[in-house]
Specification:
With about 280 residues, this protein is of the alpha+beta class. It folds into two domains: about 10-170, Jelly Rolls (Sandwich), CATH 2.60.120.10; about 180-280, Arc Repressor Mutant, subunit A, CATH 1.10.10. Helix content is about 45%, strand content about 20%.
């Protein structure tokens, strides 16, 4: 039997994330975290109890958390912590900056908020022990090392999401697709080689399905067609490369478009503007 594909490396190598520690220790009283475009929050409740409030429709207005837990806000979303005025719960928190911002495929495929007891993700234990040890001490390189450990922890969380999509609240989209053994093979191939010619029969063959069955399963799980997903993946890569300073002609070839004109046409269809106009409007890195 073939070994299962590495479902995350190609994705995270192309769309990296940078963590930045901003708090470690007790957090007392009321604290509001305003939404920031392109920025996520990862809070780890180490001990104590707390209440979280959300004002956005469709989310639980109040959550009571009474055990060590991880709170991940991958998308810009205001959230408020209500803690005891004295002897508040103990937190270690970081911001996460994802390459591509709102177009980052990982960000797009996660629920707006995830609250997971630390006991549910056993492989985090060693990483968090190191992370907390560095966050609690002022030693040479501690902040840098803590930031890297937060990034390691995030990868472990994403691995858990792929393995436990129901527990993570992921019902469809990329992370759900990566949890499906058949679709994962095709998605990994697309992520690794977007510049290749990808026909529906070729995608279906990699998944080990007939073309019609593959198209149906893909649409059900991913909530889009294989061709549309491939186009969005290529455009996400193009956006990241353009913002990094790569010329349009080079980007077009590297992400799988026949030429600059084909990339421009796809850009206008999805973004409403040309690549150069989009780049001029985009916020600086």
């Amino acid at each position: 039997m073939d070994a299962p594909p590495d479902r995350l490396s190609a994705l995270l190598e192309r769309f990296r994330v940078q963590a930045a520690l901003f708090h470690s220790g007790p957090l007392c009283g009321r604290h509001e975290f305003a939404p920031q475009p392109g920025r996520a929050f990862l809070h780890i409740l180490r001990k104590g109890e707390m209440e979280v409030r959300h004002a956005e429709a469709g989310l639980p207005s109040r959550l009571r958390i009474d055990q060590p837990s991880l709170l991940l806000y991958p998308q810009p979303l205001q959230h408020t912590f209500l803690n005891a005025p004295l002897d508040g719960p103990d937190f270690t928190c970081a911001t996460l900056d994802f390459d591509g911002g709102a177009r980052n495929p990982v960000v797009q495929s996660l629920p707006p908020v995830m609250v997971v007891p630390l006991a549910d993700i056993g492989e985090l234990d060693g990483t968090l022990q190191l992370l907390f040890g560095e966050a609690d001490r002022q030693r040479c390189g501690s902040r840098l090392l803590t930031n890297r450990l937060f990034e390691v922890a995030l990868i472990q969380v994403l691995r858990w999401v792929v393995d436990h999509p129901d527990a993570a609240g992921v019902s469809h989209g990329l992370m759900r697709g990566l949890s499906d053994a058949r679709l994962a093979r095709t998605l990994v191939a697309l992520h690794q080689a977007p510049q290749e010619e990808w026909t529906l029969p070729r995608m279906a063959a990699i998944a080990g399905l007939l073309r019609s069955a593959f198209a149906a399963v893909f649409k059900e799980v991913m909530q889009t067609t294989p061709a549309s997903y491939l186009l969005d993946w290529r455009l996400s890569l193009a956006c990241a490369q353009l913002r990094a300073g790569a010329p349009v002609k080079q980007v077009a070839v590297e992400v799988g478009f026949a030429d600059t004109a084909s990339l421009s046409k796809a850009f206008r269809k999805r973004m409403g503007v040309s690549p150069r106009a989009w780049l001029a409007q985009a916020a600086p890195l």
